[in-house]
Amino acid sequence: MEIRVLKYFLMVAREENITRAANLLHISQPTLSRQMMQLEEELGVSLFHRGKHNIVLTEDGLFLKRRAQEIVSLADRTQEDFLYRNEGLTGEISIGSGEFQSSRILSDLIASFRKVNPGVRFSIYSGNADAIKEQIESGVLDMGLLMEPVDISRYEFLHMPGKEEWGVLIREDSELAQKEYIVPEDLAGFSQISSQRELVQKELALWMGEYAGQVESVASGNLQYNIASMVKSGIGIAVTIRLDCSYPGICFRPLRPRIESRTVLAWKKTQAFSPATSVFLSYARKYVSGMGVDLI
Asked: What is the pLDDT of residues 243-281, one digit of tens each?
């Protein structure tokens, strides 16, 4: 497979029409059709359901689309790293991050780094730990800001200062809103919007103890704004971390016994980095080592 052909495939997948894709690629329609048929022959699968006026990806086509996006992105970034490596420290660093209090520290770190290295750009991908680790493994992301518990045995990592505090998002008209903090028995009988991460679900189940079976999980999510919207609509309460965010009609109450989580900036042990990423990681170690652990 050639990178050029994968780019052709992605254009066809986006446009769902060979003629439109060929015009945008500035090649003839027969040439593009032939390239797509040769790609199917090379892979031994059908990539498209071909109709009169449009084409739709098959399951194999959807799988290739995901892989092709990763491959093309990695190839473009590699080419860019070599193109600019002799013109001072430049390039792009890709970082995945969930929504944390420590995201502020990551932002401050990036701002401080760019004062010294203004030619370096940053790309931030938002997602949960599982999605970010998958992107790191595929090479699309250089590193990720992840919340423990997380299996980082394959990674090198840097502990971020401070801790994330867990609590409950509830409607202001809920009986729970009258409490200063929430204990496990308070949640018995409530519908819950849970985390999509299995490790987090297990951690919270341990905290709930004997009451874990008395809470019904009715939905899940990984972005707090969407979760807060579901809480406001009355779908359920949500056990989540405290963020510097406010949602009308919604309040946050901390858990007791207290649950706190640490976050880590993690990257693959065997990863070959661009000069910009290598310098950034060295800078990050020094930056974080000069901070206290209770800043958040």
From this structure: 988 899 999 999 999 999 999 999 998 778 888 999 999
Would you call 49 helix, strand, or coil by DSSP? strand
Q: Which stretch of DSSP H or E encloses residue 282?
A: helix 275-289
For residues 271 and 142, is the Cβ–Cβ distance under 8 A?
yes
DSSP one-letter code for 177: G
| Structural domains of the chain, with CATH | 3-78 (1.10.10.10), 85-161+262-289 (3.40.190.10), 164-261 (3.40.190.10)
Report how far residue 291's alpha carbon sits from residue 296's, in angstroms, rounded to the nearest whole number: 11
Residue 105 structure tokens: 């520290």
CA angle 93, 97, 101 (to 5 degrees): 125
Nearest to 218 by CA among 192, 189, 188: 192
